[in-house]
């Protein structure tokens, strides 16, 4: 039994079709280049805080320690003063207790800060200093993440 083979052939492209194809390739390349630049701009860029021209590493570490002290003392007025306006409304006992409970029900007494590491992050034209703080409590090891804006205001707080 013989199988019929179908032969497909492409007729020669006209000059107009060649130009259209080249134009489509160029448009696609330009769109991809723009997308790549946009992705690069949107990605966070990190650098060591000691290399920062905006932030002082010692000042950021001191502020991070102060935030931990305020959290331990439940000094929400102090936290509100340190925070940007958008965050000051959530700096209260109820919200902090909710955040603490998600990590552990009973932290116990504060023991010490065991580690602080810092970095500068720039994303979408906004630069912030990040402080990663590890603190020991009687019953838990807590990791805080603080972000400070260029005015050294607390812009973000995370508890793990």
From TrEMBL:
Q: Which residues form the DUF3887 domain?
A: 64-157
* Top-level taxon in the UniProt lineage: Bacteria
Residues spanning the membrane = 21-43
Keywords, ordered alphabetically: Membrane, Transmembrane, Transmembrane helix
Gene3D superfamilies the UniProt entry points to: 3.10.450.590
Pfam family name, one:
DUF3887
The record, for InterPro entries, names: DUF3887
- This one is known as DUF3887 domain-containing protein
Source organism of the structure: Candidatus Mediterraneibacter faecipullorum
């Amino acid at each position: 039994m013989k199988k019929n083979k179908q032969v497909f052939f492409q007729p020669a492209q006209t000059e107009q079709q060649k130009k259209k194809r080249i134009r489509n390739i160029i448009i696609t390349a330009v769109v991809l280049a723009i997308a790549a630049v946009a992705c690069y701009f949107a990605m966070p860029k990190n650098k060591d805080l000691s290399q920062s021209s905006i932030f002082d590493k010692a000042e950021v570490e001191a502020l991070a320690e102060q935030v931990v002290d305020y959290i331990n003392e439940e000094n929400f007025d102090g936290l509100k003063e340190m925070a940007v306006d958008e965050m000051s409304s959530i700096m209260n006992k109820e919200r902090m207790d909710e955040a603490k409970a998600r990590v552990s029900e009973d932290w116990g007494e504060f023991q010490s800060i065991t580690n602080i590491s810092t970095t500068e992050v720039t994303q979408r034209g906004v630069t912030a200093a990040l402080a990663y703080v590890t603190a020991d409590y009687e019953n838990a090891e807590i990791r805080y993440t603080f972000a400070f804006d260029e005015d050294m205001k607390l812009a973000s707080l995370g508890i793990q």
